[in-house]
Structures are given as structure tokens and as C-alpha cells.
Amino acid sequence: MAELTALESLIEMGFPRGRAEKALALTGNQGIEAAMDWLMEHEDDPDVDEPLAAPLGHILGREPTPSEQGGPEGTGPAAGEGKPILSEEERQEQTFRAREQLAAVRLYVELHRGEEPGGCQDPVQLLSGFPRRAFSEADMERPLQELGLVPSAVLIVAKKCPS
Predict the structure, then answer these.
(1) Per the database record, which ranges form the UBA domain (predicted)?
(2) Where are the domains of the chain?
């Protein structure tokens, strides 16, 4: 019999899928026990069934427009707004197997990102929003599961700063 994933196990225990996914994400995919502790601690929260907001980022090669920055000084979204900077056409979503290396994700991003003005393609850095983490070159050889990016994750793509 195949071993169940943490998400499948939580669902089988009777937790709604959305809550189980949220618990796993907010505990850094540290396993069933941590997710169950979070679910028990937050079962009466009024927003427990609200989906997680995607982290804000920007499109490579351009600065956010004033309307995307929001707020009077352009310091980010205006209070109460959670508008993502990327439009539906600009976001990318792809499914990878748990045992695939992070390098496969980076390759996918590099092959599918839009052309930058001048035809120059700067190298990219992959980051996770929660917990905040910048992935190193050594991480590129590790499987997604080992990096805590399973069952699901949102990765932020940023230009790699020259060293």
C-alpha cells in the first residue's frame, strides 16, 4: 500500500482540504504533527477557512506601476488591499513531482519568463515567502520534498544580485 502524503493523511483524519493545506503551509511543511497542532490551535479562528494570500512580488525587468504600489507614498498595497502585483496573464503555475530537483523549477522559470527589454536575461534567484528563504546553488540539487516545498508552495522569482 502506498504511503499517504501529509495532506492526504490530514484529509483522511477529517480535516477540510483548505484547512489542511493552510496548516501545512503555515507550519513550513514540517509534518502532520505540527499541522495538527496548528489546526487545533486555530479551529475557532474566524478566518481559518480563508485561503492564504499569495506573496507580493514584481515582474522581472520592470518596476511596479504606481497603482500596483498603492498607498500614498508607493510603499506597498494600501491598507486592507491585498492586490497581487502580477496579473492573471503574468502569473505562472506549474506542477512538479515531489522528487524533482529545485533546478527543474529554475529551468522552467528561465525557459518560460518573458523577454526583457534589450534581449538580456539576467540569472534568477528562487525564494519562498513563508518561511522566508533564499535558495542556494546547493539547494538546486535537492528534491522539492526535502526542501519543504511539498504538497504545495509559492516561489518568488527575483533577479540574482551580482556578487
Answers:
(1) 1-42
(2) 6-42, 102-113+120-159
